[in-house]
Amino acid sequence: MFDVIDNKKKGSDKMNSHPVLFAVLMFVSLCATIKIWCMVLHRPGRTWVKCLLMFISAIPFFGPVFFVFVDAPPVLPLAEQEKPFPKGTEVYAGFRPLIEAIGRFFKGTP
């Protein structure tokens, strides 16, 4: 009978064995949440999207991690996006003289 009571006390000690770790995780989560809120408030966009992202990031521990997967990267204007290479072009066209010189060196021709 007394063993059951002692086991319950030992089990409750395990729950409170790392309060410093819990405090550190809460602090890191709070810092990440504040950083995310600053990023969200300074970006252009709709208010309801900003509120939703802030709500997601406010969930302790999991919110900032989940925010990384939910947040989409900003879309660049068309003028700044990378242009695809046309077919038939060489990517390293500027290296052709160097490659030819190396080839001549190993063939022994001047």
What do you see in this structure?
This protein is mostly helical and 110 residues long. It has helices spanning 2-15, 19-41, 47-57, 62-70, 96-107. The chain is elongated and about 75 Å long. It starts with a helix and ends with a helix. The mean pLDDT is 75.
Overall morphology? elongated
Mean pLDDT rating: 75
Low-confidence stretches: none
Helix and strand composition category: mainly alpha
Task: Please name the defining characteristics of this protein.
single chain; 110 residues; mainly alpha; 5 helices; elongated
Summarize the model shown.
The chain has 110 residues and is mostly helical. It has 5 helices and no strands.
Chain-wise SSE layout:
Layout: H1 2-15, H2 19-41, H3 47-57, H4 62-70, H5 96-107
Helix pairs in contact: 2-3, 2-4, 3-4
